[in-house]
Q: What sequence folds into this?
């Protein structure tokens, strides 16, 4: 059972400006509700009971809105960053709140319509250090291609490491992943760095066990005005099912 998660919620959301000049991206309304509420409900439906939110841009508004998480039946804690530390640095900075147990990491601007328990079960079965949810996408390369071998091991991300042999299949990474607590030993403190470009590159270069969970699940995100409008249409048409 995995009961802890982190939601990456510190970014400025510049592509949604000027809206995000006054509203932090995770609180941008979609379907009449702050998008972060959908993410918290998704995590709770998957058995998560403790959530860490990293905060920077307008983080006080997120803290005011979510509070201690009790109304979502969650215990929510906050990891403040100044300066902002990017995805890898932000997770490492939150180590005191996450260490000792495996944990889920979710982006604060996107959702996958899948049963989180299926991803958790897959992670447990494979016994890897990290598991990335990945999905087929015609524009996967635009997001930084995640390439898997025949055993579902992740072998290359955005072309790194080079020189990998064998047949590989390419997918996009929508930001949902699971880590064992040993991940922190691969991460340097007090630095600004990307999880995919730095931490995953180290793991793959060292042949550490990183797996991909392939899913055709519906993905919505609010990263741009067009994406947010599409998310509005999706939620209006048929909602979002966390219990598939």
A:
């Amino acid at each position: 059972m995995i009961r802890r998660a982190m939601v990456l919620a510190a970014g400025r959301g510049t592509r949604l400006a000027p809206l995000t000049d006054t509203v932090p991206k995770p609180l941008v309304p979609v379907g009449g509700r702050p998008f972060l509420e959908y993410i918290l409900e998704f995590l709770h439906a998957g058995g998560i009971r403790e959530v860490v939110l990293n905060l920077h841009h307008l983080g006080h508004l997120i803290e005011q809105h979510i509070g201690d998480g009790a109304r979502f039946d969650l215990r929510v804690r906050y990891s403040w960053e100044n300066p902002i530390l990017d995805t890898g640095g932000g997770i490492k900075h939150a180590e005191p709140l996450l260490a000792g147990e495996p944990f889920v990491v979710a982006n604060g601007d996107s959702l996958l319509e899948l049963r989180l328990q299926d991803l958790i079960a897959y992670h447990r079965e494979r016994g890897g250090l990290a598991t990335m949810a990945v999905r087929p996408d015609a524009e996967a390369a635009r997001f930084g291609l995640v390439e898997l071998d025949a055993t579902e091991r992740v072998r290359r991300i955005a072309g790194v490491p080079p020189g990998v042999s064998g047949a590989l299949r390419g997918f996009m990474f929508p930001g949902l992943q699971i880590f064992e607590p040993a991940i922190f030993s691969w991460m340097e403190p007090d630095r600004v760095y990307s999880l995919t470009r730095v931490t995953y590159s180290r793991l793959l270069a060292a042949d550490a066990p990183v797996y991909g969970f392939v899913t055709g699940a519906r993905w919505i995100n609010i990263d741009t005005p067009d994406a947010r409008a599409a998310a509005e249409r999706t939620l209006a048409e048929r909602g979002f099912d966390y219990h598939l």
Q: What stands out?
A: The domain at 4-238 is CATH 3.90.550.10 (Spore Coat Polysaccharide Biosynthesis Protein SpsA; Chain A). Helices lie at 35-45, 59-66, 86-93, 95-98, 116-126, 140-143, 195-205, 225-238. The chain is about 30% helix and 25% strand. The CA atoms of residues 104 and 178 lie 4 Å apart.
